[in-house]
Amino acid sequence: MATSVGSARAARTRRKLDEQDYWRHWRAVEPEAVACCVCGSTDTEPFTDAPMAPGDVVRCTTCSMVFVSPVTVRGLDLSPEQEAEAERLRTSSDLKDLDGCWEMQFLACEEARSASDRDYRDVLERVREYVGGRGRMLDFGAGWGQFTAAAAADGWDVVGIEPTPGRALYAREARGLDVRTTTLTDDLFPAEHFDAVVSLQVFEHLDDPAAELDRIIDVLRPGGILAIEVPSVGGRPARSMSRHTLAEVVEPRYQELFELVLEEIRSSGLEEQIAAGIVLTGGTAKMEGAIEFAEDVFQMPVRLGYPIGITGLREYVQDPAYASVVGLLIYGKDMRTQQKKAVAARESVGGMVKRLTSWFKGEF
């Protein structure tokens, strides 16, 4: 019954999108398979029918991550005139520049939806409770500025970023907000600048959410809060999820992974030889509580591993997330050096043999 209801809802949504010519401004591409951003697997199964998704919504059969693959739509498909208009809007401070702008049709759709009149008190109360008050906040993907305005009214020192120029201009000039027409770049804000980063209905649109998370972590102070909201499947409204509920989902996955590693260690007969303990690397090793949880499972010391022996870009790659990549590069460099030495040694021995042969021929 639930499936038929969900299918009927999806069909109605698809008809509305066709009536509004929703996809007219989006660039269609050849179907492009996408690997899971969590585990890298390409093995998937159908998950749900989502008419507004830029492709099929699937679930990774390895780790259960839900994402879009293959992708059939990437970015906006703008005419040269629209591209020029977008560039002009990036730096505009005149609300009249939005007259006739193609983006305004989306604002009309937003205002027609209940989400545009949403009360954000639930989100703000949770963030306030975690931070212990108010402070500096980044609205990651501010859109038309609805949440940014609510946060400012609640007493936050809030800045929004929004890559779509018409939306950002509207938020600045119609709502009087500090919303910048940009994505989150490495030099946009100082490190550890914000007490809270809030992203509502944005992450489902990102090509590389893991990379964006890395940038967010850089500008979030230690102990700060990152609040992410993504749509529920089947057209259901988004729900707030507590830290405890999230832990209930994540902890069994970590336990399963650690127990598989422990099983491999025991089957190899090396368990008694690991006197110094275990080193965890990779971005997910930085999850709060992962080290302590691993020690409970392995019953031995566990520490977080960082790349070592690197120069030049240390501030960028001195992170557990890059340990495997840096390790492979160092391994490749060492193997190349060994190969060069082996070739040089063979050439040296061959040269010596040739010289001895010439000497013998000359003497005898």
Description of the molecule:
The structure is a single chain. This protein has 364 residues and is α/β, with parallel strands linked by helices. 43% of the residues lie in helices and 18% in strands. The chain is built from eleven helices and eleven strands. The strands form three sheets. The chain has a five-stranded parallel sheet with strand order 7-6-5-8-9. Strands 1-4-3-2 form a four-stranded antiparallel sheet, with no helix packed on it. Helix 5 links the parallel strand 5 and strand 6 (157-161). Helix 2 (80-90) runs parallel beside helix 6 and helix 8 (243-268) runs parallel beside helix 9 (290-298). The longest helix has 41 residues, at 323-363. It starts with a helix and ends with a helix. Residues 1-6 have low confidence and may be disordered.
Topology:
Elements: H1 2-19, E1 26-32, E2 44-48, E3 55-60, E4 66-76, H2 80-90, H3 104-112, H4 121-131, E5 136-140, H5 146-153, E6 157-161, H6 165-173, E7 179-180, E8 194-200, H7 209-219, E9 220-229, H8 243-268, E10 278-280, H9 290-298, E11 302-304, H10 314-317, H11 323-363
Parallel strand pairs: 5-6, 5-8, 6-7, 8-9, 10-11
Antiparallel strand pairs: 1-4, 2-3, 3-4
Question: Descriptors for this entry?
Answer:
single chain, alpha/beta, five-stranded parallel beta sheet, four-stranded antiparallel beta sheet, 43% helix, globular
